[in-house]
Design a protein that fits this description.
Layout: H1 5-13, H2 18-25, H3 29-37, H4 44-53, H5 66-74, H6 92-97
Helix pairs in contact: 2-3, 2-4
Amino acid sequence: MSFIDPLVAARRAADLTQAELADRAGLSRMTVQKVESGTLDPRISTVLEMARALGFEPMFVPASLRKEVEAFLRSGGKYLAQPSGVSAPPSIVETLAG
């Protein structure tokens, strides 16, 4: 899976054409088409503009923490085995004290 695939899926889910996304992102339709087709290796600024136009806020995560961050996000921001109904993870102080 390419890092562009979620952007393509989000564009389609929002029922936007490539031209509409390009307009929202301040890019040309040809740039969006080439990025989506893989014929252009985009600048990070291009990807960021496309992502933000689709309601994403990209975040850079150190490779060594990727699995932990993904698990945390999938859990809704809760630690594993945290009781249901708790809307925020315990503070680091609570974690260390326990």
